[in-house]
Write a structure and sequence with these properties.
Pfam families: LacI, Peripla_BP_3
Keywords: DNA-binding, Transcription, Transcription regulation
Helix content: 25-40%
Largest sheet: 6 strands, parallel
Number of helices: 10
Protein name: LacI family DNA-binding transcriptional regulator
CATH topology of the largest domain: Rossmann fold
Number of strands: 12
Structural class: alpha/beta
CATH superfamily of the largest domain: Response regulator
GO molecular function: DNA binding
CATH architecture of the largest domain: 3-Layer(aba) Sandwich
Radius of gyration: 23 Å
CATH class of the largest domain: Alpha Beta
Number of domains: 2
Strand order of the largest sheet: 2-1-3-4-5-11
Order of helices and strands: HHEHEHEHEEHEHEHEHEEHEE
Length: 312
């Protein structure tokens, strides 16, 4: 009774008692059921979808695909934007779970130990997306960012380039791709490599500013490799503003094959990931598990492909 009052009506409970209750909540990973009084069954038909951002197009197709696929199965999507800080993800997901969703979609595989404990305690199906590991929390559909980086590095190995610039957004998956490409390129000692981490959101303006910064002092590069197509688009615009031709004077590569990449001039060489397919498969895996159906493959590597266009 005291715990119930501390959680639901803390004004009538002494602060010291509230502190003890909250300590116990944190230790056990307990999530208060805010909907219990109004539910006739344990099903809410609600799926929580957690992504770091939607202020660029990187996750938009995946989110839309999840929503459409869930609607066909009779579920509703609750979308939550958590940013890139693991502690923020933990706090927000704990709040989401208090609404007792039937399942949850998490972006990435790197979560705090507290979040993992909370999710396990919630005992609901979970799908992690946009990354790859043999040991997911529950289910997973994604791809290897390290292998993407390796493939980008290998693509440039045979071009005879020696001067490379990397413009990378400050998020874990982008850094893994960057490091994967650099690991391949450093196999040749003549390669000169410079790296620049940029703030989020990684938009065109940031791409233009980043290239100006990298080329200060008349530095020149054979190729600029960007962690997103949006950054690459900004780099191309700034290169042309400085009188450089793409790809004759400098090659530019992006990531994600966003909807404008093929229509940019020059068209952007990039890495394509089936963003829509990730969403469809994630929604199907969750719905199947919620409904007691067998999930054939709990870990799905959806792969990627290099898309060679004019910019590189």
């Amino acid at each position: 009774m005291t715990v119930s009052r501390a959680l639901n009506n803390p004004k009538v409970v002494r602060p010291a008692t509230i502190a003890r209750v909250m300590d116990a909540v944190k230790i056990t990973g307990y999530i208060p059921n805010m909907l219990a009084g109004g539910l006739a069954t344990r099903r809410t038909k609600l799926i929580a979808v957690v992504v770091p951002q939607i202020n660029n197009n990187m996750f938009v197709d995946t989110v839309q695909a999840i929503g459409d696929a869930l609607a066909l199965r009779g579920y509703h999507m609750l979308l939550c934007i958590v940013g890139y800080e693991p502690e923020d993800e933990t706090d927000i997901v704990a709040t989401l779970l208090s609404r007792r969703p039937d399942g949850i979609v998490l972006t990435g595989i790197h979560h705090t130990s507290e979040l993992k404990r909370i999710i396990l305690n919630a005992n609901i199906p979970v799908v992690e997306i946009w990354d790859l590991t043999p040991t997911p929390v529950d289910m997973l559909i994604g791809f290897s960012h390290e292998k993407v980086g390796n493939a980008v590095g290998e693509y440039f190995l045979d071009k005879g380039f020696t001067r490379f610039g990397f413009i990378c957004a400050s998020d874990r998956r982008a850094v893994v791709r960057k490091n994967g490409a650099i690991a391949v390129l450093r196999g040749r000692p003549e390669h000169e490599i410079e790296e620049l981490m940029v703030s989020r959101p990684a938009n065109m303006e940031v791409g233009r500013s980043a290239l100006r910064q990298m080329m200060a002092g008349d530095k020149r590069f054979d190729a600029i490799i960007c962690s997103s197509d949006t950054l690459a688009q900004g780099v191309i615009m700034e290169a042309e503003a400085q009188g450089l031709r793409v790809p004759q004077d400098v090659s530019v590569m992006g990531f994600a094959d966003l909807n404008f990449a093929a229509h940019n001039r020059p068209a952007i060489t990039t890495v394509s990931v089936d963003k829509w397919g990730i969403g469809i498969r994630a929604a199907g895996m969750l719905a199947d598990k919620i409904e007691g159906k067998a999930v054939g493959e709990p870990v799905v590597d959806i792969g990627y492909s290099l898309v060679i266009r004019e910019s590189a």
